[in-house]
Specification:
By secondary structure, this protein is mainly alpha-helical. Helices cover 95% and strands 0% of the residues. The longest helix is centred in the middle third of the chain and has 66 residues, at 2-67.
Length: 97
């Protein structure tokens, strides 16, 4: 009987040792996952700030292209104005005759 109790106690101690090892491994894994989550959250915040900054820059570039048109659009605008001036001149000359 005493040896049977002793055997049971040894098995129980081995099982508890295995459980403690598994618990420590899971605890270490949990801590590692928490650190990775913190790093991911910080990285996410940095990326959001960068996206916002790039969106502002993109908007400024759009506005600058609208305000300061390209050489091609300036040439097109001049051509349209020249055509309108010729049409007005033609109308004035028709009115004078």
């Amino acid at each position: 009987m005493a040896s049977e109790l002793h055997d049971r106690l040894e098995r129980l101690q081995r099982k508890s040792a295995v459980l403690i090892e598994k618990y420590q491994a899971l605890l270490a894994q949990s801590q590692q996952t928490a650190r990775e989550l913190e790093e991911s959250t910080a990285s996410n915040a940095r990326l959001k700030a960068q996206i916002e900054q790039l969106e502002h820059e993109n908007e400024y570039l759009r506005l600058s292209h609208t305000v300061a048109p390209t050489a091609e659009s300036v040439a097109q605008t001049r051509a349209i104005i020249s055509k309108l001036v010729r049409d007005i001149d033609r109308c004035i000359s028709q009115l004078n005759t």
